[in-house]
């Protein structure tokens, strides 16, 4: 593990290079791809900065919908088990379990919350604009 520069510092430097050097000194396709690349780098930075908090919130929501479960010890296992639990939630929705009743309301609230968290990573401006929807 590196002390310095950190992963975030490296990504910030890459983003700054793309925005301040490549985009302003190019046109057309290269400038466009530099802008897209800079946006991807910023999304990665936001994902890394919020991943554990977002996973914890998602896990808590899934606990409420599917029953409490101990969280895996490693981040990799936690990601994998969250994906499995989301697949279980999807199967229950497809089976009609969320067609009516209180569980439906809880599922919709959870899905709205998870969509908002994902939007904060992919497009923070849109997330802020739609926060109360």
Account of the protein in words:
Helices cover 77% and strands 0% of the residues. The protein is elongated, with a radius of gyration of 19 Å. The chain contains five helices and no strands. The protein has helices at residues 7-22, 28-66, 75-94, 101-122, 124-129. The model has no long low-confidence stretch (mean pLDDT 95). The chain has one domain (7-129). The chain has 133 residues and is mostly helical.
Give a count of the beta strands, DSSP E runs of length 2 or more.
0
Order of H and E elements? HHHHH
Poorly predicted runs: none
Main β-sheet description: none
Relative helix content: over 70%
Indicate the overall shape.
Answer: elongated
Estimate nothing, just give the exact number of structural domains.
Answer: 1
Number of helices: 5
* Radius of gyration (Å): 19 Å
Strand content: under 5%
**Average pLDDT, all residues:** 95
Spatial gap, N to C terminus: 42 Å
Class from secondary-structure proportions: mainly alpha
Briefly summarize what is shown.
The chain has 133 residues and is mostly helical. It has helices at residues 7-22, 28-66, 75-94, 101-122, 124-129. α1 packs antiparallel against α2 and α2 runs antiparallel to α4.
């Amino acid at each position: 593990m590196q002390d310095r520069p950190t992963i975030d510092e490296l990504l910030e430097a890459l983003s700054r290079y793309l925005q301040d050097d490549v985009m302003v000194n190019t046109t057309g396709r290269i400038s466009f791809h530099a802008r897209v690349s800079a946006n991807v780098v910023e999304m990665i930075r936001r994902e890394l900065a919020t991943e554990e908090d977002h996973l914890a919130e998602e896990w808590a929501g899934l606990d409420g919908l599917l029953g409490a479960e101990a969280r895996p010890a490693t981040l990799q296992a936690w990601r994998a088990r969250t994906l499995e639990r989301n697949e279980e939630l999807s199967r229950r929705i497809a089976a009609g379990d969320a067609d009516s009743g209180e569980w439906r309301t809880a599922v919709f609230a959870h899905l709205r919350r998870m969509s908002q968290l994902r939007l904060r990573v992919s497009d923070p401006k849109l997330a802020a604009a739609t926060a109360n929807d």
